[in-house]
Design a protein that fits this description.
The protein is mainly beta. 14% of the residues lie in helices and 40% in strands. It has helices spanning 3-11, 56-64, 77-82, and strands spanning 18-23, 29-34, 37-41, 46-52, 66-71, 89-90, 93-94, 97-101, 107-109, 114-124, 129-141. A hairpin with a 2-residue loop joins β7 (93-94) and β8.
Length: 167
């Protein structure tokens, strides 16, 4: 296989940017920027999220079987970059972002336009990222998008010309 062609072709897949949060076994919180997300079913509402298998967020999701997928909106590059690093809980904020607990205990970022509370249905453990299939148990809309909802989402291309994931 031509490695450069593979990398370029895989990078042509468009990605939204999200922050996945979960409560840890010791009562703390974990969070990470994720971008491999898709809806997989309408009834029940299911999503699939690719999560780095050696991350703290993956460990928390695997243990708790619950998480929140916070949808970042246009202009929210700051939070996207903040959660590329391990989350820090300081002064009641998570990596500088105000939040409140969802009914499942995971953090909902107050400034995210939308958030989905999820319950893990299955984990497909293949490769360096595992696919978490989860049922959406609650949805929060913090601000109504103008125009198409999918155009309100922060996308990988919005993070700059040299920021890629995958390939």
């Amino acid at each position: 296989m031509d490695e450069q062609a593979k990398k370029t072709a895989l990078r042509m897949i468009p990605y939204g940017i999200y922050v996945m949060t979960a409560k840890t076994a010791d009562g703390g919180v974990a969070a990470a920027t994720v971008n491999w997300v898709t809806q997989t079913a309408f009834a029940p509402p299911l999503i699939a999220v690719g999560v780095k298998a050696d991350s703290g967020t993956y460990a928390a999701v695997k243990a708790s079987k619950q998480f929140v997928l916070n949808v970042l909106g246009k202009g929210q590059q700051g939070p996207a970059f903040a959660f590329f690093k391990p989350a820090q809980l300081e002064n009641g904020k998570l990596s500088g972002e105000p939040f409140h607990p969802a009914s499942n205990g995971a953090p909902i970022l107050d400034n995210a336009p939308a958030a989905l509370e999820c319950k893990v249905a299955e984990i497909v453990a293949l490769g360096d990222h595992h696919v978490v299939v989860a049922e959406v148990t609650n949805a929060h809309l913090h601000r109504e998008p103008t125009g198409r909802p999918d155009e309100a989402v922060l996308e990988m291309k919005d993070l700059g010309p040299k920021v890629f994931y995958g390939g």
